[in-house]
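Hey, quick one: can you model this chain's 3D structure?
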Amino acid sequence: MKPFIVGAAVVLGLAFLLLWRSPVITKGAYRMGFFLGLAAFAGILFGPGGGWYLRIGSNPWGFAAWVPITLLAMAPFLLLLESGIAGYRGFSSWMRYVSLVVAVLGAVGLVASFVLPHLLREAGPSAK
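Sure thing. Here's the predicted structure for all 128 residues.
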């Protein structure tokens, strides 16, 4: 669970970087955001207790805890999406295309995480 929390913190930092318009933010800051986002994604995927599966125990807080839990589960895809956007803004060479591919992968994963469970429920064994 800790890699997901760190990933969510990086997601919030990248969102702040991407939304804040200031002359202080240079291309170097976007490049650093790109590599930091990819490093956090690798930490989620390959770190101790990491992986795509978020293990959640019993939920003592009820429905109020599902919003942060959902945001934690979306962290890997948001990391890819925001890292790709930051890289696209930071680089001016062929790395722009690599950043664009990373952003597209994150966007496809984010959309699939919402659409795929719905489709699987409709086509499941209880479907008529």
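One thing worth noting: The chain has five helices and no strands.
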